[in-house]
Each structure stands twice: as C-alpha cells, then as structure tokens.
Amino acid sequence: MKCKAFDTNAALAEQVVSELSALKPHSRVLIPSGSTPRWVYDLLATTKVAEHLTFFALDEWVNVPSESDGSCLSMINQDFVHKCAHPVQLIHFDPYASTAQNIAHYNAALNGAEFDYVILGVGMNGHIGLNEPGVSFAEDYLQTKLDDVTINVASHKYFSGDVTLSEGITVGLGKIIKASKVIVIINHEDKKGIYQEIVDGDAHHTEIPAIYIKQFPHVNYYITKNLQG
C-alpha cells in the first residue's frame, strides 16, 4: 500500500494541484463530489490548471434532480466549477438516463482513452464513488443499490430537505484501475476507523472497494497525519 501523509489539508491540496499542473493538455481527470476534495478544489480554482483539462464526475444519485443541493453534480459545480474564473469542461452522469445511455456518454467523451488521473475519496463503509461493499470489482461502469450507511450519511450530510436515495451510477473499479494514476484522499478525523481497516485489510480477500484497490502500484493514498497513531 502506497501512502503519503501530509501535515495539513492545504499541503495535501498543493501536492494534488501540482500533479494536475504537470499533466498534458486535454488530459482526462476523474473527480469526486463531497467534502473530501474541497481543499483541492479551492486551490485549483485559483489557478489556470483546470482550463486545459477535461473533468469527469465520478458518480451520481439515480432519480435525484441534478439541481438538488446534494446531487453530485451540484456539489462539484458549487465547490469547484462555479469558483473558477475560466470555463471548466465537466462530463457528468444524467440521473434520469438509462445506464446504457450514461455509459455511452462517458465512452464517447473518453474516445477510446483511459483516465489520466483519478481523485477519490472513501466512504465510512469503504465505498469508492458509489461502488458499494460487495459490488463486482470488474465493472467499468455500474448502477448500484446503495448501502444503508451511504444512504444515511448522504441524506443527512448533503441534502437540506427530504430525499429518497436508493441507487447510484458510478465509474466502476474496473475502469478506475486502468487510469495512469489514482489517488485516494482520506483527510477527516471521522475516517480514522476505515483508514485503519484499509491498512490492515487483505486486498485479495475483501468486499470493501477501498481495501481492494490498495493492491495496485499506481494507487496512492494521500492522508492527513491526524489519521495516524
């Protein structure tokens, strides 16, 4: 397991933005929503780095309007896209389209290529995107039934009103591990438990996505030092 610890979220963000700035123009970058990447997005929005990259949203809730405050698209727009002084190209899932239509949309945008750089967070249950515990790790894309932990956390954390969450569409682990570089950010004190599970877990005998992907040499865990010890 490749892990790099940073003193602060700001230092972690500087590392990620530095790596993004080194990418070739038009590189394809897969990004998550939620609270984990906000430090990265805040810093990235102050630069011109994003102007020359193509971003793809990692996942989306199914049958939840994109304009809802807790939709993945809404969060990425609020935390990143709308903060940038220049246009940002963002490919995203349609929560009301069929799985086949969403897959075709992403594959057309990738045009036969793979992701050059992937930024991930980790859920309290070890999910990656909406690859929930127990899903197939071989799929490039999949529509999943949401785990109860995911539903409970997301409903209270991201949405200001009542919402019914049951399924999600996500880029699958089969596609993620084909990327040139993958970073998994864990930077919240409340993720200390799942971080330790990842460290101790057996990547070859697990149903937890965040444990499974640690076996790949191009997957890097970027953590803040408050998770250690």
From TrEMBL:
Protein name (Swiss-Prot/TrEMBL): Glucosamine/galactosamine-6-phosphate isomerase domain-containing protein
A Gene Ontology BP annotation from the UniProt entry: carbohydrate metabolic process
InterPro entries referenced in this protein's UniProt entry, alphabetically: Glc/Gal-6P_isomerase, Glucosamine6P_isomerase, NagB/RpiA_transferase-like
Pfam family, one: Glucosamine_iso
Species of the source: Kluyvera genomosp. 3
GO MF term (any one): glucosamine-6-phosphate deaminase activity
Keywords from the UniProt entry: Hydrolase
Hydrolase recorded as keyword: yes
GO cellular component, one term: cytoplasm
Glucosamine/galactosamine-6-phosphate isomerase domain boundaries: 10-214
Organism lineage: Bacteria, Pseudomonadati, Pseudomonadota, Gammaproteobacteria, Enterobacterales
